[in-house]
Amino acid sequence: MKAFRYHRPADVAEAVAVLAAEPQAAYLGGGTNLVDLMKLGVQRPDVLVDVTRLPLDTVEELPDGGLRIGATVRNSDLAAHPVVRRDYPVLARALLAAASGQLRNMATTGGNLLQRTRCVYFQDTSKACNKREPGSGCAALHGQNRDLAVLDWSEQCVATHPSDLAVALAALDTVVEVHDADGPRDVRIADLYRSPGTHPERETTLARGALITAVRLPPLPAARRSTYLKVRDRASFAFAAGSVAAVLNLDGDVVRDVRLAYGAVAHRPWRAYRAEEELRGRPFSPELAARAADAELAEARPLRHNGFKVPLTRAITVRALTELASS
Amino acid sequence: MSTGAVGRAYPRLEGAAKVTGTARYAVEYPVDGVTYGWAVPSAVVRGRITRIDTTEALASPGVLAVVHHGNAPRMAPGPQPELRLLQEPTVHYRGQYVAVVVATSLEAAREGARLVRIDYDTGPHSTVLTDDHPGLYKPDQVNPSYPTDTAEGDFDAGYAAAPVRVDVTYRTPAYHNNPMEPHATTAQWHDGRLLVHDSTQGATPVRATLAELFELPPESIRVVAEHVGGGFGSKGYAKASVVLAALAARHMDRPVKLALTRQQLFGPVGYRTPTIQRVRLAADTDGRLTAICHDAISQTSTIREFAEQTAVYTRSMYAAPHRRTTHRLVRLDVPTPFWMRAPGECPGAYALESAVDELAIAVGLDPVELRIRNDTAVDPDQGRPFTSRNLVACLREGAQRFGWAGRDPSPRAGRDGRWLIGTGVAGSSYPARARPSTATATARPDGSFLVQINATDIGTGARTAIWQVAADALGVPPERVEIRIGDSALPTAALAGGSMGTASWSWAVIRAAQALREKLRDGGPPTGEVTAEADTTEEVGGQPALPRYAYGAQFVEVRVDADTGEVRLNRMLGVFAAGRVVNPTTARSQLIGGMTMGLSMALHEEGLLDERYGDWVNHDLATYHITGCADVESIEAYWLDERDDELNPAGVKGIGEIGIVGAAAAVANAVHHATGVRIRELPIRLDKLIGISDLA
Amino acid sequence: MQGGGENATTIDERHSSRVTVEVNGASREVTLDNRTTLLDALREHLDLTGAKKGCDHGQCGSCTVLLDGRRVKSCLVFAVTVDGRSVVTVEGLAGPDELSPLQAAFIAHDAFQCGYCTPGQLCSARGMLDEVSRGWPSAVTGDLNTPAKLTDAEIRERMAGNLCRCAAYPHIVAAVRQTAASS
């Protein structure tokens, strides 16, 4: 790990200013991913700007019925928040399904959204990875790729986004509040993440030095009937083999509104718009859910070791929606 | 005579030290002027270092030195080639330690290690085990000294003639021991003498190895291993950490602490070889075995032969007139495989006990009953009666406790909502052995006693068990006995391995105690200290070669998610016959620990090797899954009251390993019962079962 | 007050920091390389070797300590970030004269073998029980809107961040269950 300077800014503007002035600076949140990657030599900042003591640690109910969640709210606090538990169970469930109790006490909302892939080739500086070292190649494409993408990958990168939280937030049409050199602005979560394409080193659309200050959940009464299903290789403390965030609003048995997002299948949390389209306006049935999943997964291109993710994602789509429909 | 300490459930003697954090492990002793070593692994599989550029590393703040083959102190060849580290530019496998950076802090050492630039000439490599590898050969013997192949009767004819046959091949991946404490050492040289605090299963063998490597009399070396954070075989011998730390400390003339990183444990400290095992079983229509053949393939390295004794389990477990076992090996460009909890028996029992289950289905016989029908009082391998064999009793008691009776054998017979429920059974056995040891017993004028032996407590409860044995042997309440272990300055003793620690150590302790009582009887009450010593070398060596085995039966209930293929353990129950149990508390912990590691093998663990890089890419605990707390819902271990006078003075058989033997087969058999799908390649993960899902 | 030592002198001022932290009730002040994790600060600078280094990447839980009362993995916390905060390690769990009920229960249930993961298990259990008393749900909590009852399934899930290769898990669960029931 390279020696680094440590900076604790007094406010957001100062934090952003330091990042703007330092070419190799990074924000430090909970550290659960950044410290890990610094030890591995994957990230080598000269300066760490510790944002955890900025006043971004509150959850605020908005007049429109939505919720603003400060970027440094810890995952465990967010999962335990009574409004989140009541109004956005998909969010609470996604948080609780992630990592471990200790890590949830550390990890921040903003940091969670920006965590890096757990692709083993990315994490090992002795192996080829375009995301870590552009132009070096993708060792995962023809390597051990069981955990990697089936949708929207490129020859340059087959990584998946590891976050559970981001999958739930994608389903909830969250707005991400960011602050960069040009000041504050809103980014729709659908616009936050990039496909890997030819530049997998660029994971988000944020400008360098942008700081996530909060995420804003729009009011969504339908989200009271929502859930997050995560399938893991061991019972707990593991990244997803597959996951689905689902919100379902039925009018009688007709699907009035539905939000679906998948984890563990792509470079970004995967909002399943096609599946939603298939479902909306039709009488719900497990068969319909299966057809919807098929529509979404039609373009899946499994790699050598991860073909199971397609039927698995189909299965958990059907289960999640069927459970919601009967709840 | 006995005070009844043996058999009582004493809490661990070091319990308070361990729960208050005051128990010190290998790199936790305060040492003046200590420096920190960081191992640098090779980034190539096979080749030769052409240049090491240490400029940048040495310029990094806090870095004191880079020790490598060009400047390291010389060592004698020593007993194991992979310990001849930093002596030559040749690289035999990826991850081989090729340099050590020494620095004033851990942070500086880590960064220094990253800055060492190494150029290599590389050659082609082969790192993947296959059943048609051109390099397959027949080793002269298998670990530790079993014949490579055995044959009795005429297997081919017996097999061909049988009405029921099973011919199946099982595969197991590489397994990595992963004790929670990484291999770690503090090394200090003082006036030509070497003191190391090492995380090892045996300070005596480590001292012997260091003496050879550094060409010193053993008396000049002291190895302390008071508390050891697990080993499971991987610390059964001197490993890279102690050699590198001692080399670096000598080079620096300063103390060095060196702990391998978690990532660095995946390979170079040993691992369980992958196996490919073909098992053929033939039986008559009553389920009586007529022919058994077990052909095992595993790998070793190019620098040393380690031949896992995979098929040895099959030689003595069940009887049949026609039997054959074979072992074949391939030398690959990989680190040398080594011991991992029940080497041989563990993977071998997975295959045999799975095949027996398949045979039971083919015959249409309950798998418990089929095992009972094929029991034997005479060791099929040695042709002599077992000193005791309570496999059937374990099966019967286990079946009763588990509620096996009335089981519907049809696959997919059990269902609970979305969960498919299945049960499975397997047998277990493990040899009961002992090794020579020495011990002393001292009577003090205040009425207390001191017993000393260089045993090692790697978490087994050895310290407490020996203390109990010593108290009974001395005929005094245990409160009056002090026990010292974990230091090569103490009387030399066998390592903690092979499930023979308690047998070996208690033997020497009992003899020392008897000798002391003899002395005291002669001389009346002591005015000063009176010490007696014992050496069991002759007695252990003179023991007749009889088939001595512990046995067990393992029962498992799993549930499999019918939608996703996820497998979860409902319950696991083992009954064992392992001689006398010295301490029920620590014995139960060891048995359930072994069973859980078998569960982990069945469902979770898999070293994923990337042939292009020649290493295991999932080399951490986030990607190499071991069973966690949430995976173990119910696990129980019981034992029979077993007396066997042909074992050793304490009457123990050893329990460190038998818990893992057969456990994975019981899980796999239960998964088959639940789903109708027979997975013959571990681990059994959802990707292999997703095909059962109606939703997928 | 000890600590720092040679370590602190090898790195320049820009890359090091003076850190004041309360550890097990006592204020400690030490100059540290900014790269020093809380775990390494405890082990190498404050002679508190109770917290263990099992993986150094937050994947095993052996390094768990309580930071401002909450359980965290100290291997992923830079010590410089805890300036002014309070840390409790396994060395701080016991009372002056006797073990805490949790520690006593670990011994009584033989909730460890090699003992290397134990300090982390204990700190994790301590923090977890506080989380339960605050009504926090877990992944296995059925109804998110009512406080979870501490069933064995809840204990197993909540302790899943602490690996134990000796696999003392059922005994850990029993020790935690007993401690929770008697408090």
Tell me what you see in this structure.
The complex is a heterotrimer of chains A (327), B (696) and C (183). Chain A has 12 helices and 12 strands. Chain A is of the alpha+beta class and 327 residues long. In chain A, helix 11 (286-297) packs antiparallel against helix 12. Chain B is α+β, with helices and mostly antiparallel strands and 696 residues long. Chain B contains 16 helices and 28 strands. In chain B, helix 8 packs parallel to helix 15 (663-675) and helix 11 (462-474) runs parallel beside helix 12 (501-523). With 183 residues, chain C is of the alpha+beta class. Helix content of chain C is 32%, strand content 15%. Chain C has 6 helices and 5 strands, in the order H-E-E-H-E-E-E-H-H-H-H. In chain C, strand 1 and strand 2 form a beta hairpin. Chain C is globular and about 50 Å long. The termini of chain C are far apart. Residues 1-9 of chain C have low confidence and may be disordered. The chains are: A alpha+beta (327), B alpha+beta (696), C alpha+beta (183). Chains B and C meet through helix 1, helix 3 and helix 14 of B and helix 2, helix 3, helix 4, helix 5 and helix 6 of C.
